[in-house]
Specification:
This protein has 64 residues and is an alpha+beta fold. It is built from three helices and two strands; from the N terminus they run αβαβα. α2 links the parallel β1 (21-25) and β2 (40-44). The relative contact order is 0.13.
């Protein structure tokens, strides 16, 4: 028997009819929360490239 019938909940319609599919870029905790809720999801390992100016590199060298 469908659990919605047991609880009296209305059948899902529209965007709620299907569970979400998510591509997570970033926080692993968010990905794990999606997995725990039975969502279709993938974790993308990605780190943005950056360039550091020579001035900032010099300042960091002074502090570190």
């Amino acid at each position: 028997m469908d659990s919605r019938q047991e609880t009296g909940a209305a059948p899902k319609t529209g965007i709620y009819k299907y569970k979400p599919a998510v591509a997570n870029i970033g926080i692993m905790l968010f990905y794990q929360a999606l997995v725990d809720q039975d969502c279709d999801c993938v974790q993308v390992s990605w780190v943005p490239e950056y360039e550091q100016s020579e001035e900032i590199a010099d300042m960091l060298d002074e502090f570190l």
